[in-house]
Amino acid sequence: MKSLSLSASSHSKSLLHLLKPQTPQSKSPVFLLLSRHLCANPNSNPNQPPQDDYSLVTQVLQLLRPNEKDWNFDQLHTLLFPNSTSPSPRSLFLITRRLGAPSKALKFFDYVSENVAGTPPGSKALLSTAFQALLELTLREPTSKNKLFELYKMAKDRNVPLNLKAAGLLVRSMGAAGMEDEALIVFNELHLGLKTTHIRNVMVGMLLKIGRVDDALKVLDEMLHPEAKFRVDDFTSDVVIGSLLRRQQIGRSVSEEEIVELVSRFGKHGVFPNSTILTKLVTVLCRNRKIGIAWDVLHDVMKMGGAVEAAPCNALLTALGRGNDFKRMSELMAKMEEMGIKPDVITFGILINRLCKSRRIDAALEVFEKMSGGVKGVSAEPDVIIYNTLIDGLCKVGRQEEGLRLMERMRSQGGCAPNTVTYNCLIDGFNKVGDIEMGHELFDKMKEEGIPLNVATLNTLLDGLCRHGRLNTAFDFFNEMQRDGLKGNAVTYTILITSFCNVNNIIKAMELFNQMLSAECPTDARVYHCLISGLSQAGRMEDASFVVSKLKEAGFSMDIVSYNVMINGFSSKNKPDKIHEMIEEMEASGVKPDSVTYNTLLAYLSKAGDFKSAHKVLDRMMDEGIVPTVVTFGTLIHAHCLDGDIDKAMRIFRDMGSKSKIPPNTVIYSDLINSLCKKNDVEQALYLMEDMKEKGVRPNTQTFNALFKGLRENNLLKKAFQFMDRMVEQTCNPDYITMEILTEWLSGVGEIERLRKFVQGYPVSKPQPKQKDGIVAL
């Protein structure tokens, strides 16, 4: 550096030049400095730095206004380092920051760092503030990311110590710029006194964000040490617990138990998660079915003195409610009262909702009265959701009138008026008990009050009408609503299509289906499944196949019920190729056959007389682990009886009891007794009648008719009288077939009086239709 000392002659010339009269505006910085020294108190200490920082800053900034290449370093040195003294740290900070451009600030910093070397020891610390200002200016630039670490290395090379603000700026800025490795280097090299709680929090948050969980926990362990100088604070807790609870967590996973342990460790330092974080922790634990741990952590925070609000308690109450754990819900409410935690409207909403869903309506009403009755410590006013929950609960247990009165009470509460949901609940409630007129009266009142209707309103009314057989009224109402602009949805069409299928009005059901397709109404699979079932049962297999194709076009898949009804439909039409096609499609789509599938196939094969294939199907059914039902055995027994192979039928009957442990039903006994009597094996038929009595299976009219035929053929009159008496005892009404058999037989043997007493007071029923096959009756 060029010496700044002046010879006597040059000094004189400079002084004469500077002393020339000048306007205030033309006074040079040097003149001002000299004037200050000449006018200073002669007793003052010349080694003291200038007292007027603002004046010095103003002068230096004026001197450095030109481009860096035109700076006058001689004058700058005179201003900054008079009498080998140094400017104050504040002055250097203000000058550096107000230079504006990072390039100027860096050049100024270079100049100061070179010249401060000749000042008293410890003056290097002066540069900390200048370096802080340089960082602040650099961070304003878009390309600052690439310069931060270089600036840090420069400061390190020049032994410029970082101050607290500069250290924080570097660590935070590097972390935000994605320079996590560099930020960690800076952090690790910081003086321990600079590793404050704030900087440690920044580091922990940054490390967790990039998935370096173990590094973050290492820093955290230092903060949690009992003798740590810089300990955890509320922000530490929120950063750590909040980061670890994120669903998209990067790095190694941290278990809920580890998080709970951290909460406990924080608690020993008097630091607790805020209400939002604690609520999230309780929610996550409950979602993962760790309700016991959630219960413990919440109670531990309370026990350690943490401030707990209603929100985390509400999260735990919700989980307990899902499990109907009303005991612990009550305990938690008691604990809240003990700890002075005021329940809010959500708390009461959870309690009332769970009680209503468990049909404990009186308990729910008790909670409601406590809430709205001004009990000490309770200030939550019931809202429309709570009213609607109670009204819906009352309607679901048949207390519609109370629900109606509660709606009137709701009106009387300021700022809480019935809405669409309120009316929908009441309409549905009255519909469910068959009071369709009241449902429509409420609907009219709803329109009168200007409360908007929605598709749920439409569906509720349609469901009520359809349930009570008023399908034409339902269809007309649907069309009226359509004209008024209220369009139906998938549920609407499912209600109507199912109802028309149930009364075998397939034409109307298909009309509605086509209307749904043309309206491009978003649907679900149920409406297709309902129509497939209805068409198959009606034997309209071409139409059913068309609906199946539309179901697939809509992106849905057939379920096992739809496959079963299609297979049954094709069986009734004797379409073996189509049956095979359905079974192959089932296997390809991964839908496993169930007992209904196998029973349907057994019935079809048995009816066709293909007993060999039928028994193969039975073997495969059992190999698949599907337990045969009474329908399975009944189907085979019925088929063998029709085929005249009573021995085979009886073997299957005996296997039911000895191997499968499935008790036969009335239809199976009736089939066997009928076949045995036809084979004139009345003795075996009588044995089966006694077997029925022992096993508690009640014979029906068809059973007695089959037996009476066999007894007549063998002229076993006394046995006939016994079973006539048993028929009376069991109040089993005779039909026309019974009377035909007994009249012809008893009149021929002179027992008309016995016949008259038998039928006296009996309402003789009409003959029942004959079974086409066993599966329907079974």
From TrEMBL:
<dbReference type="InterPro" id="IPR011990">
    <property type="entry name" value="TPR-like_helical_dom_sf"/>
</dbReference>
<feature type="repeat" description="PPR">
    <location>
        <begin position="454"/>
        <end position="488"/>
    </location>
</feature>
<feature type="repeat" description="PPR">
    <location>
        <begin position="489"/>
        <end position="523"/>
    </location>
</feature>
<feature type="repeat" description="PPR">
    <location>
        <begin position="383"/>
        <end position="417"/>
    </location>
</feature>
<feature type="repeat" description="PPR">
    <location>
        <begin position="344"/>
        <end position="374"/>
    </location>
</feature>
<dbReference type="Pfam" id="PF12854">
    <property type="entry name" value="PPR_1"/>
</dbReference>
<feature type="repeat" description="PPR">
    <location>
        <begin position="594"/>
        <end position="628"/>
    </location>
</feature>
<feature type="repeat" description="PPR">
    <location>
        <begin position="309"/>
        <end position="343"/>
    </location>
</feature>
<feature type="repeat" description="PPR">
    <location>
        <begin position="559"/>
        <end position="593"/>
    </location>
</feature>
<feature type="repeat" description="PPR">
    <location>
        <begin position="524"/>
        <end position="558"/>
    </location>
</feature>
<dbReference type="InterPro" id="IPR002885">
    <property type="entry name" value="PPR_rpt"/>
</dbReference>
<feature type="repeat" description="PPR">
    <location>
        <begin position="629"/>
        <end position="663"/>
    </location>
</feature>
<feature type="repeat" description="PPR">
    <location>
        <begin position="419"/>
        <end position="453"/>
    </location>
</feature>
<feature type="repeat" description="PPR">
    <location>
        <begin position="665"/>
        <end position="699"/>
    </location>
</feature>
<dbReference type="Pfam" id="PF01535">
    <property type="entry name" value="PPR"/>
</dbReference>
<protein>
    <submittedName>
        <fullName>Putative tetratricopeptide-like helical domain-containing protein</fullName>
    </submittedName>
</protein>
<dbReference type="Pfam" id="PF13041">
    <property type="entry name" value="PPR_2"/>
</dbReference>
<feature type="repeat" description="PPR">
    <location>
        <begin position="700"/>
        <end position="734"/>
    </location>
</feature>
<keyword id="KW-0677">Repeat</keyword>
